[in-house]
Amino acid sequence: MKLQKILSRFLKLHPKEIDLSLERVKLLCNKLGNPQDKIKAISVVGTNGKQSTINAIFAILKEAKIRCNVYSSPHIQRINERFIFNNKELEDEKLAFLFEEVEKINDNQPITFFEILTACYFFEAAKYPENINLIEAGLFHRFDATNILKKNLASIVTSISKDHLDWLPKNEQTIEKIVYEKTSSLLQSNIIVSKQSLVSTKEAIKKTILKNSSNKSFFNENFSYSNGENGFFYYEDKFGGLKLPLPNILGQFQLENISTAIATLRLLNINIKDDDIKNGITKIESIARLQEIRSGKLKRLLKNNKLLLDGSHNEDGARVLNEYLQTLNCNKHIIIGMMANKDHEKYISYFKDISSLTTIDIPGQPNSINGKDLKEKFKIIPNVQYKESIEQAIESIILNENDLVIITGSLYLAGEILNLN
């Protein structure tokens, strides 16, 4: 309750939820003693795969007994998820104390919700100068509150695609503009670029960072992986090859994210052993990224049928999700809720061979699209229906043995599902 009261006060500090600028967060961090200048950081920018890449790095570093701090957004269930220090989420009492300390120093000055949360993270992270910080950029990067570091260990560029287009002028809603916003202000250190869905996106990244003097490493040029047999895959870079066990998370795209994580850590030369990598990638914690729900209220409704939860919400996320689904020999039933500012028709166009599609509302999200309106946008899909609640949606599906149900379309929906379950 105390945390919620503080967060409510944070939301009232600025009339806009997002106001792209660095001045407010710089001013507050200056009052805090510029804690962002006292940390060791790996910055992660991109559209898709940021959290998955961070999760893989985190798992490997923990296996190597290297302590981490992690800052990510949005949270799925609890605000604490955004504040990991010494490998653990900050407890409610300590998080509330941190918030109040920074709130007092801010002295009611205008600042957005994300900006003050970012300042809080930096303030706490500075207390652990030897830890490695894994910092996920928010919207774009150039004017994102996380982009006030003067130096870092590395910048990772995950898959970039079209998303958040409503924050760009109509004539600038291009992949080239998004690439520019995400990569033009990367620091001079190491830049590791993940696999991109289009060659043109990779070339746009190369063009944007051409004058950046960082040590640059690109997927398929400087590091790569290949599928093996009998539960293994092969990773290779200039340091040599690794035969690795398949990770404990689903989806071919996760091998791309894990390869980027491995490339980054080997490039940094921070005493990561091969066994740390082999063991770490089998212990990755991943929420709402092709997460199988194995127990709980909603799972009981499905009995023996498998339930997956995936927070993908843009076209590239839809593409990799469908690629995974196409590897499964079963009927697929999709339940979907989305935010209003997404390209709904583009998202659903990637899905093939769907047995049924059910749209739902996302509870407590005023910026989501009503499930009935979403159904209208999906009416070209056979067997599309609308249900008011997730329980009604699940109960309405006629399931055969081995059929799969997947809930997708929004990280906000994923949070609601996990809380309900």
Please explain how this structure is put together.
The chain is of the alpha/beta class. The chain folds into 2 domains: 2-280, Mur-like, catalytic domain (UDP-N-acetylmuramoyl-L-alanine:D-glutamate ligase, 3-Layer(aba) Sandwich); 291-420, Protein-Tyrosine Phosphatase, Chain A, CATH 3.90.190. 36% of the residues lie in helices and 17% in strands. The protein has helices spanning 2-11, 23-31, 50-63, 92-106, 113-125, 175-183, 199-208, 252-268, 274-280, 297-302, 315-325, 344-349, 371-377, 390-396, 411-420; strands at residues 40-45, 68-71, 84-85, 88-89, 132-136, 154-157, 190-193, 215-218, 223-227, 232-237, 240-245, 291-292, 306-309, 332-336, 356-359, 384-386, 404-408. The strands form 4 sheets. The chain has a 6-stranded parallel sheet with strand order 2-5-1-6-7-8, sandwiched between helices. It has a 6-stranded mixed sheet with strand order 12-13-17-14-15-16. The two termini are 21 Å apart.
